[in-house]
């Protein structure tokens, strides 16, 4: 059994008297310690799949298993615990607490788990050892995203889920963030999933899953993933 398995997953939203099939019979698997890129046009179902994987949303039918555990069958309380301990999220717009310093933002998240990484060391790892006491407003977009990544990984999650992590960044800064995510995957053996619109970065992934209209349209693996530094777009 793969580390992550989506099996016949369907998600239907009902609102305003109508219904939308955000996901329809979605099947895919992801290996432990791999980097996966999820591609697809707007509305294809990428965020819905990531939110289900992260315990932020429920599914209508099918099963989702992570590390041998059926997360689609969790109670609300178990789902909250799963989200807190097993999942690190990185969003497009960082979502840092503006009144806390970089270090305090990471400390806040790391307190969730006893077996967390040292917050200061984690910030040093993402290249921000010299900005520990700065507030988010004193940091560039790329630096804020580094804090957000440090915050997400400091609690040692099983999965690092990233929804358009470079969407608000310029080309060079975006490349540095992608390099950081690839390094985290390789050096810490963390399972990383990245949603993006940018098909050009596909060669950096171990696996590429392409969504279209709520379904997996294509799924492929790279035998030799490229370093982000060698990819041009
Ligand atoms: N809470 C909701 N209620 C109703 N419909 C929803 C809800 N969330 C998502 N949808 C619909 O489900 C479909 C898939 O949305 P989703 O956000 O997963 O797409 P996406 O591929 O992530 O798009 P984008 O790249 O624009 O973020 C869309 O048609 C969307 O309108």
TrEMBL record:
<dbReference type="GO" id="GO:0016887">
    <property type="term" value="F:ATP hydrolysis activity"/>
</dbReference>
<dbReference type="Pfam" id="PF00005">
    <property type="entry name" value="ABC_tran"/>
</dbReference>
<keyword id="KW-0067">ATP-binding</keyword>
<comment type="similarity">
    <text>Belongs to the ABC transporter superfamily.</text>
</comment>
<dbReference type="InterPro" id="IPR017871">
    <property type="entry name" value="ABC_transporter-like_CS"/>
</dbReference>
<protein>
    <submittedName>
        <fullName>ABC transporter ATP-binding protein</fullName>
    </submittedName>
</protein>
<keyword id="KW-0547">Nucleotide-binding</keyword>
<feature type="domain" description="ABC transporter">
    <location>
        <begin position="4"/>
        <end position="231"/>
    </location>
</feature>
<dbReference type="InterPro" id="IPR017911">
    <property type="entry name" value="MacB-like_ATP-bd"/>
</dbReference>
<dbReference type="GO" id="GO:0005524">
    <property type="term" value="F:ATP binding"/>
</dbReference>
<dbReference type="GO" id="GO:0098796">
    <property type="term" value="C:membrane protein complex"/>
</dbReference>
<dbReference type="InterPro" id="IPR027417">
    <property type="entry name" value="P-loop_NTPase"/>
</dbReference>
<dbReference type="InterPro" id="IPR003593">
    <property type="entry name" value="AAA+_ATPase"/>
</dbReference>
<dbReference type="GO" id="GO:0022857">
    <property type="term" value="F:transmembrane transporter activity"/>
</dbReference>
<dbReference type="InterPro" id="IPR003439">
    <property type="entry name" value="ABC_transporter-like_ATP-bd"/>
</dbReference>
<keyword id="KW-0813">Transport</keyword>
């Amino acid at each position: 059994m793969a580390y992550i398995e989506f099996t016949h997953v369907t998600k239907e939203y009902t609102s305003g008297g109508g219904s939308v099939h955000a996901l329809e019979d979605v099947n895919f698997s992801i290996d432990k310690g791999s980097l996966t890129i999820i591609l697809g046009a707007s509305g294809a179902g990428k965020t819905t799949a990531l939110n289900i994987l992260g315990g932020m949303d429920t599914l209508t039918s099918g099963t989702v298993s992570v590390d041998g555990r059926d997360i689609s069958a969790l109670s609300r309380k178990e789902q909250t615990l799963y989200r807190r301990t097993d999942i690190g999220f990185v969003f497009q717009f960082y979502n840092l607490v503006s009144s806390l310093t970089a270090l305090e933002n990471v400390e806040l998240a790391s307190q969730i788990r006893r077996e967390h990484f040292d917050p200061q060391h984690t910030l040093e790892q993402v290249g921000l050892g010299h900005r520990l006491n700065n507030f988010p407003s004193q940091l560039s977009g790329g630096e804020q995203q580094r804090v957000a990544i440090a915050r997400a990984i400091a609690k040692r999650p099983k999965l690092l889920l990233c929804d358009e992590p470079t969407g608000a960044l310029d080309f060079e800064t975006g490349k540095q963030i992608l390099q950081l995510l690839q390094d985290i995957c390789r050096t810490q053996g963390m399972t990383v999933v990245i949603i993006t619109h940018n098909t050009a970065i596909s060669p950096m992934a171990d696996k590429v899953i392409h969504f279209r209209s709520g379904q997996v349209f294509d799924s492929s693996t790279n035998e030799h993933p490229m370093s982000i530094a060698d990819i041009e777009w």
